[in-house]
Amino acid sequence: MHIEVLVEDSSGKTLVDLLLPKLLGPQMDPHTWRVHPYKGIGRIPVDLKGGDPAKRILLAQVPRLLAGYSKTPGIDAVVVVLDSDRRNCQAFLAELKAVAAARAPALNTMFRLAIEEMEAWYLGDRAALLAAYPRAKNAVLDRYEQDTVCGTWELLADALHPGGSTAVKTAGWPLPGQLKHEWARAVGPLMDLEVNESPSFRKFRDGVRRLAAGGPLVGDL
Predict the structure, then answer these.
(1) Beta-sheet strand order (sheet of 109-114)
(2) CB neighbourhood size of 153 (10 A)
(3) What is the rounded CA–CA span in Å between residue 58 and residue 42?
(4) Is the distance from CB of 77 to CB of 110 less than 8 angstroms?
(5) What is the per-residue pLDDT across 189-199, written as a single tens digit (0 to 9) for each?
């Protein structure tokens, strides 16, 4: 099986690149995949045709991309990984599925949401997080309730970065992006996929495995 994976930013690609071999085995043995990063999430276009491809905003491109993939030989499935942010997850998934039904009804498409942000997946494996960052502030990590909408990356920054999220926001771009890449590279290789406590991570993990096995895609969050 060949899978195309779309993620909303390059730090997400870094993490997914590390996770897929753990889920699917080595590239080309037997599955293959490509992970495509975009430059933000954006919005689904009202006309479902897609915006300027050069801008690489994920939701703006999804209708066009799914339609194109559905006509491309050798692509067996598409996985789209998104942060839910503060959206209503059920409504957001319904909107995404409607796009797939309208633009690529025959394409095997799976949407997965990280709740609220992909940093929730690191927080779901505290052992990996502490192995990568032994000096992390446990008092901050203890405040986190898994997969809640609480300012997830900010909480992780409060636990890991000197001065916390306030210092990161004060410094401004590109520091937030740099830290997200650092967290992916440091924590991703250490994650134990079987014990992760993040429900949204488990949905991603189990969905990818079912997809590769040719099983039904159940469980949308």
Answers:
(1) 32-37, 2-7, 77-83, 109-114
(2) 21
(3) 6
(4) yes
(5) 999 999 999 99
